[in-house]
Amino acid sequence: MIREGTRAARCTVERLMKKLGIQGIKRGRRCWTTISDDSLYRPADKVNRQFTATRPNQLWVADITFVATWTGLFMLLYH
After folding, report:
1. Roughly how many angstroms between the first and final C-alpha of the chain, as a whole number?
2. Sequence-separated (6 or more) residues with CB below 8 Å from residue 64
């Protein structure tokens, strides 16, 4: 409307859009969630959630993190 030279209050635009059943573009980050599927294979929990090591090199853990970039997802591996 601004490009066409029409001035209107935000509440007027909101009311008209609601009446027409249209929505504007939602900006912001997309919410990524994990949807677990119990039917898929899962590796066994060999440490039974006990992450205390009594000697060096007894237990190793790792983490995989995905970071959204302009070109796609970037995978970070921590160990």
Report:
1. 53
2. 75, 76, 77, 78
Q: Are 60 and 79 in contact (CB under 8 A)?
A: yes
Side chain identity at residue 3, one-letter code: R
Give Cβ neighbours of residue 40 (< 8 Å, ≥ 6 apart). Answer: none
Residues 19-53: tens digit of each pLDDT: 999 988 877 777 777 777 888 888 888 778 777 88
- Amino acid, single-letter form, for residue 51: F
pTM higher than the cut 0.85: no
Q: What is the number of residues in the chain?
A: 79
Structure tokens at 11: 């509440």
Contacts of 73 (CB under 8 A, 6+ apart): 66, 67
